[in-house]
Amino acid sequence: MPESNVVPAVPDGLLVRVQHFYAHQMQALDSGRFEDYAATFTKDGVFQHTPNADPAVGRDGIVTELHAFHRRFDGDPVRRRHWFNHIALTPQDDGSFHATVYALVVTVRPGGKPEIAPSCLVHDVLVVEDDTVLTRSRRVEHDQMF
Prior knowledge:
The structure is a single chain. By secondary structure, this protein is α+β, with helices and mostly antiparallel strands. It is built from 3 helices and 6 strands; from the N terminus they run H-H-E-E-H-E-E-E-E. The protein has helices at about 15-30, 35-40, 60-70, and strands spanning about 40-50, 55, 80-90, 95-110, 115-130, 130-140. It has a 6-stranded mixed sheet with strand order 2-1-6-5-4-3, with helices on one face.
């Protein structure tokens, strides 16, 4: 991020495209469509979402990681909703965009009240190929780990 208070310019319409992209990406994740979620990454995409764990690499690696991670919810009627907001885009020299995003994961069980757990800062590198936005890399920082 530039050290000045100047907000970096991004192409017209890009923020709306990225918001639309994130909406579809998170809905795929939250509905358990892990192959669809992984398809939103580049073929060699890197996904690091658990503190102190090695990142998943490639679409197949991302799918494998998500299935393993979500086994903890087997038999648990939990619903999780990922909420991405305050998207800050910064153009990179290679034509990609660094995205810094505030993320909340809302967890709810039948009859229970929604809980926010965790609160995160997401660091993405996004690439735009033709009319498609893809994630090249994602690193998630959990706020409770600071």
